[in-house]
Design goal:
Layout: E1 11-13, H1 16-21, E2 27-34, E3 37-45, E4 50-53, E5 62-65, E6 68-74, H2 84-87, E7 88-89, E8 110-115, E9 118-123, H3 134-149, E10 155-160, H4 171-179, H5 184-204, E11 209-213, E12 216-218, H6 220-227, E13 230-234, E14 238-240, H7 254-262, H8 264-273, E15 276-278, H9 279-285, E16 290-292, H10 297-309, H11 313-327, H12 331-345, H13 349-359
Helix pairs in contact: 3-5, 5-12, 7-8
Length: 370
């Protein structure tokens, strides 16, 4: 059991007798003590604890992964009335003991900040352009669910740390999984479960979700962006379908959202030729609503999200639900089709050869004619 699931440092678990009362629901309460008061976080385990090889900048071996659902969060202050540091809330699925002398958790793959009814979810693996491994994808799904369930949050921003939005699935993690003797199909089977939960919750959340695309958005990163309701791109942003170039097929609802934006013919062109789209081209195609200078992206995203947070939430949510029912009535069915086809494709020679070439920085060999 981790000792801390929050950015405030030391936490304690309530006495066993209290936990025993709700054992059947697997409810746990974490109390975090802070100079401003006591924070009480109640959460429920969604799945059993599992382990996976950590693939960050340092080798930590196997670490615990907890899939949790936040039940409630009580703080002694309103987020809009405190400093950015105190108002920060983070949901992590890689939980470790705080480093001695340091009250912050290490290796948090996703940060969740709330201010003035606007939540900002930041993908935080900048050293790999925020590529999605299991830890980050679980944390992303959890953070989105928090935003969906918390009535105090009225608008959401999704962005990336560093110079990238999200490079898609972490192919280094896939390679390491295979080199350790794992089945590549199992890698994609496990990764797509939380990814598709996140995509489903973005669409079913009756609150506006804004993508602030601060750099490359490839593969599942592109899917994540186009799943959002409003998309703002920095001038340095780039979009690339990427799946077919490495021998895979799309996931994350790409085959639902992209054709609805650009039409079947253009979507097919993107799948077959896999071009890189610059921010202005993405704007012309309708992938993004605005393009702004890089140093103005955060400011503009907050401006738009604050305006949306001040609008009648139930009206915006109802309108979004109607758009979903009209344009994406089979989203969950198509997500499962994508998942099954991706898992199967992950075991093909096409993917394995192209992944190997990608890791070795070589051009993949052309198939021989029989």
């Amino acid at each position: 059991m981790p000792r801390s699931l929050n950015p405030f440092g030391g936490a304690e678990i309530l006495p066993k007798s209290r936990r025993h009362q709700e054992r059947e629901r697997r409810i746990f309460v974490v109390v975090a003590h802070h100079p401003c008061g006591t924070h009480k976080i109640t959460f429920e385990f969604a799945t059993p604890t599992t382990s996976y090889p950590y693939t960050g900048p340092s080798n930590h071996g196997s670490v615990p992964v907890l899939s949790i659902r936040l039940v409630s969060y009580r703080a002694p202050f309103e987020h809009s009335d405190v400093s950015d540091r105190i108002g920060e809330r983070s949901l992590i699925c890689v939980a470790r003991e705080p480093v001695a002398g340091n009250n912050e958790m290490t290796d948090q793959p996703v940060r969740l900040n709330v201010s003035d009814a606007v939540a900002t979810i930041t993908l935080d693996r900048p050293e790999v352009l925020n590529a999605l491994n299991l830890s980050m994808t679980e944390a992303l799904a959890g953070a989105i669910q928090v935003c969906k369930d918390d009535d105090r949050i009225r608008a959401v921003i999704i962005t990336g740390a560093g110079r990238g939005f999200c490079a898609g699935g972490d192919m280094k993690a896939a390679w390491q999984h295979i080199q350790a003797g794992g089945d590549p199909r199992h890698f994609f089977r496990d990764l797509t479960v939380p990814l598709h939960r996140a995509i489903t919750d973005i669409r079913s959340m009756e609150k506006p979700v804004v993508a602030a695309v601060n750099g490359p958005a490839g593969g599942a990163g592109m899917s994540l962006a186009v799943a959002c309701d409003f998309r703002i791109a920095a001038e340095s942003a780039k979009f690339k379908q990427a799946y077919t170039s490495i021998g895979l097929v799309p996931d994350g609802g790409w085959t639902v959202f992209v054709p609805s934006i650009v039409g079947a013919a253009k979507a097919t062109e993107l799948l077959l030729l896999d071009p890189v789209l610059g921010a202005k081209e993405a704007l012309a195609l309708g992938f993004v609503h605005e393009v702004v200078p890089d140093d103005k992206l955060h400011e503009r995203a907050v401006e738009v999200s604050t305006r949306l947070a001040q609008a009648p939430t139930t009206a915006l949510g109802g309108a979004k639900a109607l758009v979903n029912s009209a344009l994406f009535p089979t989203l969950e069915t198509q997500l499962e089709r994508e998942r099954q086809r991706l898992v199967a494709q992950g075991g093909t020679k096409d993917f394995l050869e192209r992944l190997s070439a990608f890791r070795q920085r070589k051009q993949p060999s052309l198939p021989k004619r029989s």
